[in-house]
From TrEMBL:
One of its GO terms (biological process) is proteolysis. Transmembrane segments: none annotated. This is Collagenase-like protease. Keywords: Hydrolase, Protease. It comes from Malikia granosa. InterPro entries: Pept_U32_collagenase, Peptidase_U32, RNA/ubiquinone_mod_enzymes. One of its GO terms (molecular function) is peptidase activity. Residues 400-514 form the Peptidase U32 collagenase domain.
Length: 661
């Protein structure tokens, strides 16, 4: 990708979703391979990835494969073989976390740094660029100022900046959360996170007082940078990434289309920028991020720290407010809608908050429109799927939200977009026949000729119009006509069968020309001598899990290298999560918030807090200088015992340098 190009990067749980992401405007797709991806249940065969590649490359869109877990020593060779298979299948790049892969004999496939590599500083970004990574996805927690500083420290001709613009937010710095492994043995760095951050917790202060009860204090709202795209471009971002390799087809279609429209609007205003792939999309629906599952939205830290980034009441989808309960019946509930234009459908998902602010779901079985209410809203009777006596605190006046519209779901189950590459068509007369030329918007050309004797048209006034109409019928191809030029000696008649054959052959030639000019993304060459790593000591936080990763960092000047947390050397209390989110700040208990407040200044200190969920207890410690929070705990004895009872295929002792022969 060139420095002036903008890339919309969409997720794909499987190849079919990836194909629809391309159809809805994605310039690139990221998808998991058959193993070693950070979403353990979103795996795909090499054959399916090859199928996706064939479709994406027609539009010069790219396919990136995630191989972004940390690897055991015994997994390095299988990973190497898989990478060769993916390269042969046409994959354009690998998204990686484990630096041990850079020590292997790999094909010349481009390498991108996963969000799991925890890129927060200009020094780390510059190092990864110098080590041979061509695209780096920055930490979600960065501000515009920090992103700008990273762009200034890197070379846009050598390394692209990628940034998450939409989707679920992991509360931890990516790659810096070990709670799942400590509590269950399931490692987030190995693609198997148990999502402890979405659980409810009781929060106690240093004196044991409860300051929050059953709140999801580690659960973030969902990321939405729709309003910040232009500012992110100015800061240096060129790849705009949508989170969601677990998400369904409807989500990927809708969110891809949403950002395609926003980026295209910016491109119209800024001619110095360009799309990273070809074709224009036509959508048969109005994209709307609110229609998909979300925990409400935040732009997180891009514009600075804010208080309302958490989804503390519920990790579920609250949906959009549509009205109020007007009457509760033994077998149904009546709702007055706030907007008369709103229509409900059988199967819609509704919800409301009970008196404890817990979200209660109400799936409709059948709905009936009754008539107009007192204020012009419409009254609907809802027959729920579940018995009425199970809906806690459902009463007159309760606000009702809709978090799933069946009409919306059904609309996205149909064909919802098409993507066409603009093409100029020219039919010209030549000695002994005709030549048809198709030239696409990227300058590729396909030609076809036919030997025939032109017949004069019976109706000269309509002849040219009919020829243009027939030639412009590009139908199910990926091309659409921009203009049709006729260079004939006069109004002529050409049999439809001849025109169809010419058009079919020219389209085939044009597709072949496009395929032949698509060059593989180049593998970056690391600088020599090897660039020094910004630090000379690595703790378990560096996720070094195999000898090749250890060799990589040693070659780049690191002197002390601890093994990854998954090696289970850290049996005492350590930071199990590091996060920019601060519970004290979100609960208005931050010393900086109290600064200058009469009667409060000096009374509020960043003392530890405790999180309790059942038998699980975690300590929150606050590092106010960098404004970070550490969630502290230790690995469970049951996890250690489970590992000890199994034959271990990774090193439980710190990797040591190999002795020279």
């Amino acid at each position: 990708m060139l420095p002036h190009q903008l890339e919309l990067l969409s997720p794909a749980r499987d190849a079919d979703i990836g194909i629809e992401a391309v159809n809805h405007g994605a310039d690139a797709i990221y998808i998991g391979g058959p193993s070693f991806g950070a979403r353990a249940s979103a795996e795909n065969s090499v054959q399916d990835i090859a199928r996706l590649v064939r479709h994406a490359h027609r539009y010069h869109s790219r396919v990136f494969v995630t191989l972004n877990t940390i690897l055991r020593d015994d997994e390095l060779e299988p990973a190497r073989k898989l990478i060769h298979q993916l390269y042969d299948a046409g994959a354009d790049a690998l998204i990686i976390q484990d630096m041990g892969l850079l020590e292997l004999d790999l094909p010349p496939i481009q390498l991108h740094a996963s969000t799991q590599t925890d890129i927060r500083t200009p020094e780390k970004a510059r190092f990864l660029q110098d080590a041979g990574l061509s695209q780096i996805v920055l930490a979600r927690e960065l501000t515009l100022k920090q992103i700008t500083a990273i762009r200034a420290a890197t070379d846009p001709d050598r390394c692209n900046i990628e940034f998450f613009v939409h989707g679920a937010l992991c509360v931890a710095y990516s790659g810096q959360c070990f709670i799942s492994h400590a509590h269950t043995g399931r490692s987030a760095n190995r693609g198997d996170c148990s999502q402890a951050c979405r659980l409810p917790y009781e929060v106690k202060d240093a004196q044991g007082r409860i300051i929050a009860h059953d709140k999801h204090v580690l659960s973030m709202k969902d990321n939405n940078q729709s309003e910040n795209l232009a500012a992110l471009i100015d800061a240096g971002v060129r790849s705009f990434k949508i989170e969601g390799r677990y998400k369904d087809m409807g989500y990927v279609k809708n969110i891809t289309a949403h950002y395609r429209l926003l980026l295209d609007e910016i491109l119209e205003q800024r001619p110095e920028l360009a799309r990273a792939s070809s074709g224009e999309c036509t959508f048969f629906f109005q994209p709307d991020p609110d229609q998909n599952f979300n925990r409400e939205f935040t732009d997180y830290f891009v514009q600075g720290r804010k208080e309302d980034i958490g989804a503390f009441d519920s990790p579920k989808n609250p949906g959009q407010a549509i009205g109020w309960v007007s009457k509760v019946n033994p077998d149904s509930v009546e709702i007055e809608l706030s907007d008369p234009a709103t229509e409900l459908a059988n199967g819609d998902g509704l919800c409301y908050y009970d008196l404890q602010k817990e979200l209660v779901g109400l799936q409709t079985n059948r709905v009936e429109k009754l008539g107009k209410g007192a204020e012009g809203g419409r009254i609907w009777r809802i027959f729920p799927k579940d018995p009425m006596d199970g809906f806690k605190d459902l009463r007159k006046g309760v606000e009702v939200n809709r978090n799933r519209s069946m009409d919306w779901v059904r609309a996205l189950e149909k064909k919802s977009a098409e993507r066409k590459i603009g093409t100029w068509i020219r039919l010209e007369q030549q000695p002994g026949g005709l030549k048809l030329s198709l030239t696409d918007e990227d300058g590729h050309c396909g030609e076809a000729s036919a030997s025939l004797e032109l017949q004069p048209a019976r109706d000269p006034s309509q002849a040219d119009a009919k020829l243009r109409e027939q030639l412009g019928r590009l139908g199910d191809t990926i091309f659409s006509p921009l203009d049709v030029t006729l260079a004939l000696s006069g109004p002529s008649f050409v049999p439809a069968s001849q025109l169809n054959a010419l058009r079919r052959d020219a389209v085939g030639q044009l597709e072949s020309a496009r395929a032949s000019t698509l060059q593989r993304l180049p593998r970056a060459v690391p600088v020599e001598p090897p660039a020094p790593y910004p630090e000379d000591t690595l703790t378990y936080l560096a996720n070094v899990y195999n000898h090749k990763a250890r060799d990589f960092y040693a070659r780049h000047g690191v002197k002390v290298i601890a093994a990854a947390y998954e090696s289970q050397e850290e049996e005492g209390e350590v930071s199990l999560m590091i996060t920019k989110h601060c519970v004290r700040f979100s609960l208005s208990l931050c010393p900086k918030q109290a600064k200058g407040v009469t009667g409060v200044q000096g009374q509020v200190r960043a003392e530890p807090l405790q999180l309790i969920n059942g038998k699980e207890k975690l300590t929150l410690r606050f590092d106010c200088k960098p404004c970070e929070m550490h969630v502290v705990g230790k690995i469970k004895r049951s996890v250690l015992n489970q590992a000890a009872a199994m034959p271990l295929q990774f090193y439980r002792t710190r990797p040591k340098p190999q002795q020279p022969a």
